[in-house]
Amino acid sequence: MHQVERAIFDLRRGLPVVVTYGGSLVLVQAIEGAAESTLAALAELTGGTPALVLSRHRLAVLGAVEGAVGNAVESAGAARLPLPEGLAARRLAALAYGASPAVSVGQASLAECRLALEAADRADLAALALMRRALLIPSALVARVADSSRADVEAQVADGRLLTVPAEQAERCLDGATGMLKRISEAHIPLADAFDCRFILFREPDGLREHLAVVIGEPAMEVPGAAVPLRLHSACLTGDLFGSLRCDCGEQLRNAVAEIEALGGGVLLYLAQEGRGIGLANKLRAYTLQDSGLDTMDADQILGFGEDERRYGVAVDMLSALGIQRVQLLTNNPLKMAALADGGIEVVERQGLYGTVNDHNHRYLSAKAERGGHLLDEVLNAEAVASRRS
Ligand SMILES: Nc1nc2c(ncn2[C@@H]2O[C@H](COP(=O)(O)OP(=O)(O)OP(=O)(O)O)[C@@H](O)[C@H]2O)c(=O)[nH]1
Ligand SMILES: [Zn+2]
Predict the structure, then answer these.
(1) Which of 60, 329, 365, 375 has the fewest CB atoms below 10 angstroms from its CB?
(2) Which CATH number among 3.30.420.40, 3.40.50.1970, 3.40.50.10990, 3.40.50.720 corresponds to the domain 182-273+310-388?
(3) Which residues are catalytic (predicted)?
(4) Is the ipTM here above 0.90?
């Protein structure tokens, strides 16, 4: 996976990388920061027509998943839209992640563009996977290298100006490599709500993300049959650190520590999955979209993401590294229970874990309950009763 992580750094810096696929070369570049000159440079270097790869979530926003074109796109999971020459950068951004689906491409209407859509091939899917792993907008500029330009591109690869990544490696970059988490370092850190805590840091094999296991007290981790109280907490910088009122994360984090302590000890896994896996930059974009009336899931979809982009393979790996097989899970999220069960961890019991409902997070929590199936009736109903009384 060596090339993948290097490619991610280049993409985040706004540089193109070359995805190789069945003998062909495809230049790939992030949509963020792309200017008119980016498209011109891609066309010049490759001798091909730059195209925009869009995820199926974004295509649904654009209304492009109906009819025959839609079927082909749906089965491929993404589509490629050839871009007209001289397309303005703001039109490109509007197409990739703009709030209004009523966008047009150059002189062409959206309906005409739909007809121009081509089902994504593996290089396109690889490009999207790289963008997701890099926590960029999940849409990519791509350009196939024409035969006449191949020697030029190969020369740039040879002198180190361009990196190549095989499509099949890039496609797998979201899966993680099971069992390869590295346990890096640890320390005792007393917390306000639990004095006896040990923080253990794990690093993913590609070096990109780090996750923490906080072992609280002396849980019976290696006792056969014991169910260890467990919280899986996805990072939320705004809530966890700043006490944002837009969500319930900060309170849930602190309540989880106190609750695990009260249960006689257990483990909290603090997972680097900011913004349900879309990253902080995109979460801020999603918040701005929510300010115009969208709910938390629709806002993510405008950006091209699914309802929840998190994967829990690293959590399962951390639990096995700690020798934990049976857990009592503190969550309201059925997906977390299913993900652990899929990973071979027995969820013996679930316990709800709540923050306070307020005017700012009410809509967010309701969307989680109504659309995400989160088990929040208790807290939302209690809040409704309280507001009827006052
Ligand atoms: N994309 C997006 N992410 C959000 C938003 N609000 C909060 N988050 C993220 O949602 C995640 C919430 O994580 P958790 O509290 O572990 O999980 P949960 O899915 O709410 O389930 P529980 O275990 O019941 O708390 C964090 O990664 C937050 O950063 C939002 O409006 N948009
Ligand atoms: Zn939060």
Answers:
(1) 375
(2) 3.40.50.10990
(3) 308 (proton acceptor), 310 (nucleophile)
(4) yes
